[in-house]
């Protein structure tokens, strides 16, 4: 499945929404959620540009945000 590539402006807006807490799942939203959502967005953008194999490796890595 091919994902549409976000424009730089769309990426900026999406990152601003994450920063402002407008994009989250669940009842509570903290800095770790914010970082996870930003990682997800960046991974999706890179995957849409053809970097999926590297993103697969990144997504398997243990992450610690605190």
From the N-terminal CA to the C-terminal CA, the straight-line distance is: 34 Å
The overall average pLDDT, rounded, is: 87
State the helical fraction. Answer: 55-70%
- Helix and strand succession? HHH
- Radius of gyration (CA) equals 13 Å
Shape: flat
Biggest sheet character = none
| Beta strand % | under 5%
Number of self-contained structural domains: 1
- Number of helices in the DSSP assignment: 3
- Count of distinct strands: 0
Structural classification: mainly alpha
Low-confidence stretches: none
Which tags fit this structure?
single chain; 66 residues; mainly alpha; 3 helices
Describe this structure in words.
The protein has one domain. It is 59% helix and 0% strand. It contains three helices and no strands. It has helices at 8-19, 31-48, 52-60. The longest helix is centred in the middle third of the chain and has 18 residues, at 31-48.
């Amino acid at each position: 499945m091919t994902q549409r590539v976000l424009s730089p402006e769309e990426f900026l807006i999406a990152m601003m929404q994450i920063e402002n807490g407008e994009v989250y799942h669940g009842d509570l939203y903290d800095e770790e959620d914010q970082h996870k959502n930003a990682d997800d967005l960046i991974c999706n953008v890179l995957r849409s540009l053809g970097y999926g194999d590297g993103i697969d490796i990144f997504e398997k890595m243990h992450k610690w945000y605190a």
